[in-house]
Amino acid sequence: MTLSVRRVIKSKPAFGTLVVVIYATLAIWSTWPLARCPTTCLPTGTSDSLTVPMFNLWTIWWNAEGFLQGTNSYWNAPIFHPTPNTFAFSEPQTTTILMAPLFWFTQSRVLAYNIYLWFALLLNGLFAFLLLRKLNVNRSIAIVGGAMLLLLPIVHWQQDVLQLTPLWGILWTWIVLLKISRSSSLFLGAELGVAFGLTFLTCSHQGFFLAVLLLGAAGTLWKRLLNPNLWATLVIGICVAAVMTGPVVFHLRKASEENSFKRHPMTVLQLSALPGDYTASKGRQLIEFDICAARDQSRLSPGWFKAGFAMIGVILGLKRKRWRWWTMFMLITMLLAFLLSLGPNLLIYEWRPWWTLTEYCPGFSLVRNVFRFAFFVQMTIALLAAQGLYGAFLISRRLCSRKQQSYIVKPALLILCLIAVFEVFPSEPALEKIPSAESHAGWIQFIRENTPPNHAIACFPFAAGFKVKDFETTAKWMYFGTFHGVPLVNGYSGFFPDEYFDICEAINAEPSSEAVFRKLADSKVKFLVVQRSWDKKGAFSDTRFDSILIQSVYSDPVGIDVYRLQRVETSSDQLK
Asked: Contacts by 315-320 with C-beta closer than 8 Å and gap 24+?
């Protein structure tokens, strides 16, 4: 290799391109064979249901379309008609609006979803790389650290929950805090606010968790607490973050208060971690350890080798002055995240701290999947593991001759790095094919062209139960809704309005009840869209009640029938 070629490879632009290519390759490999069908399939992680992926696909569509309609229309999403503010019932995922140009250009909802997934994985690796470089970790081990973050077991296990995949905002926030720990400025304060704001707008769930952990680890800055520049920096950061997240927080809180949202204690308990869950990992493993006290559905370890390297990273980090603050910050964040992930399972004598937090601290009472604090546990362990690998490299460089480094140390370090990255690697994701909108184009076009403004449709069947799998048909109705744009009485979300449960229970109990149809008609429901295979008894076929008329207006060969729902005057109405 000539000297000029070496210089090109070592240049920042060329090396940066190489890093991006490596992480892009890992992102595609870790989700393979998704790249074979990026316009027709969605990954469902380890679940067997399309409900959550299709709901997130609908969310991406609504961020692209609803944002153009103004603030009020944006939050009044076309589900759970006529309930207002329905987009605040779950994760808005506002940053997915970045996919709008791709969505408008290709008109492929599925492609926009999958590219967002790959892009999030790539950024996870890239921001981890930048963070480690800020710690002066050499390029090679920084690449390894980024790869560990990109392949983090919990991310790929929860891959069906798209908003949990992007970790880059958290990593960016930590990068800025690392800068602030060394020097303060108003610019860094603004950058901190932007980084945290984007984290929250990407996933409010993770943004809330990050805020809690930042408060818990704030004491690590105790040496600089009397520095007015630090306080000015933090105040600027808080103000910028408040401006960015304020509208979202307002609507989320408004929806929660107006609908009295809360989580069932038993559900929270079941979705909290146990200490033993951290003894095993999700995914394929190079070495199966016999030490395993984890539940099958909750394997939260990032890997035993990573944990071992992280211990080395902690020891070396506390000894090295330049790494000391960062190591303390990571260590406290990890321990606090671990304890919080236990939720109500953490018992101190007769006291369960989680229930105290839900009672006195805003936001905690809305948390359902408490175990997801484990994301932060795995992230901190992976970063500390990279720190440990680099620390071991520095020690070996001092103790070994150049010849020993070339023939022993570097090959051994390469093997250790590969083990750290691939000791747990993602299982092949389950892929589910999205229903073809083209085959449903007939009834979709009829609904789009014939539904008056401010009217809605009800799609049958409704969900027969309350498990995620039960809402898969509902999620499909929502997907078809991205093509006709008409509000649905149906819906799926993180929370549900009471009105939905009332109408759903009534429909499942007696779908052809006059009272049910009257309630739908009073809510300005214009059409009933019925899956023919579900309506085997023909309950909707040209039915007339005293106050309701149901007429068949469109029959699609794909197996969908459309009925017009019309309110008619009764004799008592005429007397009035």
From this structure: 316/387, 316/388, 316/391, 316/392, 316/395, 317/384, 317/387, 317/391, 320/391
Please give the single-letter amino acid code of residue 119.
F
A 10 A CB-CB count for 217 gives: 20
What beta strand segments (E) does 54-142 contain?
none
Name the pairing type of β-strands 525-531 and 456-460.
parallel
Q: Is residue 29 part of a domain?
A: yes
Query: In the beta sheet, which residues pair with residue 424?
Result: 285
What pTM did the predictor assign? Answer: 0.93
Amino acid at 230: L
What the block records as the tokens of 149 is 């973050």
How many distinct structural domains can be found in the chain? 2
Predicted local distance difference test score (pLDDT) of residue 192: 96
- CA separation (Å) from 65 to 234, 255, 482, 571? 35, 21, 9, 44
Q: Tokens standing for 495?
A: 């929370």
User: Which residue range forms the structural domain that includes residue 553?
Assistant: 434-575
Longest dimension (CA), the chain: 104
Q: Enumerate residue ranges in the chain where pLDDT < 70.
A: 1-11, 288-294, 399, 401-408, 511-512, 536-539, 542, 569-576
Rounded to whole angstroms, the Cα distance separating 232 from 467 reads: 48
For residues 189 and 295, state if they share a domain.
yes
